[in-house]
Design brief:
361 residues; alpha/beta; Alpha-Beta Plaits; GMP Synthetase, Chain A, domain 3; Rossmann fold; 3 domains; seven-stranded mixed β-sheet; four-stranded antiparallel β-sheet; 28% strand
């Protein structure tokens, strides 16, 4: 009989943050594949049973996580890891600096090259193409995300000389030019979570829509929802419109180019059952805009921001509630408050799902 392995049962939408927490505790059995349970759950294989303190830490992050056991298939091992591929090409003191993570958007890999590896960046790029068989382009980050359009400079280090690709996620396809519009593949589960919350017939306002990953998935998931997708970057909106057609939701996604504040003032005041604010660097400056877009009868705001130690989610909730109260409205309740991804040491991107009360309350 195949041997059962201890594991954690977790809701699909919380899998990503739970895996991060389990990895930090050194509990993950990385030789085994995560398994699907029913439609809404996944099983994460463990090296051993967590102790009480470890379970308390995990439940603090994901309250509904459950201990279980089941049979897991072994992962198919890649021919070589990036570390193994580069080990013989680098001086003995440098392999420790090899990037542990990279973003893959379609067939483009984006990597941050540490200063110590700068002379070897071409070798790193070629190794990425060798290890990741579906990747055709390797780009190195050449600066921070900056400017009104949230763009980043890149340097070609291997493969084809282009920045555009087609990225697939949650049953949707997106045309993306990473040099012309901000895009992160790391919010895949979050986009799926938000789309699953939208009710048929809702009107959604996506204030910082980019190429449309929230807006298009919502329109595809809820056939009778209507999404107004706003972005100040005309290149991003052009891609969004192309993606709406590509995914056959152009009759439910209405793109608007312009500053979110002006667009809401002129076109979208009081129209939204739900507002998405995925601009974590400066979303706090637009809380009044979101409140203005929400219907007078109330609605939900999905607010994204950065939480940097020593601040906490409670600090973030307090700041958001205060900003809402300045508009003459109030937060009826927080439906969700959680970290969605780590962005730096002692920093994460977090989301607040806030139910905004009607004006009569």
């Amino acid at each position: 009989m195949p041997q059962e392995t201890p594991c954690l049962k977790v809701a699909k939408q919380h899998c990503e943050e739970t895996v991060v927490a389990v990895n930090k505790l050194g509990l993950t059995d990385k030789g085994l594949q995560i398994q699907k349970g029913n439609e809404d759950s996944l099983y994460i294989p463990l090296q051993r049973q967590p102790n009480e303190e470890e379970m308390a830490l995990l439940r603090a992050r994901t309250p509904e996580v459950q201990l279980a056991s089941c049979v897991f298939p072994e992962k198919k091992r890649q021919e070589k890891t990036l570390m193994e591929t580069l080990q013989d090409l680098l001086p003995p003191h440098l392999p420790a600096n090899i990037p542990r993570a990279l973003d893959i958007v379609g067939d483009i890999a984006i990597v941050e090259i540490p200063p110590e590896l700068e002379p070897y960046k071409v070798a790193v790029g070629e190794a990425i193409l060798k290890v990741h068989k579906n990747v055709r382009v390797a780009l190195a980050k050449a600066g921070k995300v900056s400017g009104t359009y949230r763009l980043r400079d890149f340097e070609f280090i291997a493969g084809e000389h282009r920045t555009c690709t087609v990225y697939k996620e949650n049953g949707c396809s997106y045309y993306v030019d990473v040099a012309k519009a901000y895009f992160s593949p790391r919010l895949s589960h979050e986009r799926e979570r938000v789309a699953s919350l939208v009710q048929e017939g809702e009107t959604v306002v996506d204030l910082f829509a980019g190429v449309g990953p929230f807006a298009i998935l919502i329109a595809k998931t809820s056939e009778h929802a209507k999404v107004f997708a706003v972005d100040i970057n005309p290149e991003a909106v052009a891609m969004l419109e192309r993606n709406a057609i590509l995914n056959r939701v152009e009759n439910r996604v209405f793109s608007i180019v312009g500053d979110a504040r002006k667009i809401v003032d002129e076109q979208l005041e009081g129209m939204a059952d739900r507002v998405i604010m995925n601009l974590p660097e400066t979303a706090c400056k637009f809380v009044d805009v979101a409140c203005k877009a929400v219907k007078s009868t109330g609605g939900v705001v999905h607010f994204y921001g950065f939480v940097r130690s020593p601040n906490t989610l409670e600090n973030m909730k307090s700041r958001f509630s205060e900003a809402v109260s300045k508009t003459g409205r109030k937060v009826e309740t927080f439906l969700e408050a959680k970290a969605v991804r780590e962005t730096a040491p002692y920093e994460c991107q977090a989301v607040l799902d806030a139910k905004i009360a009607s004006f009569s309350q």
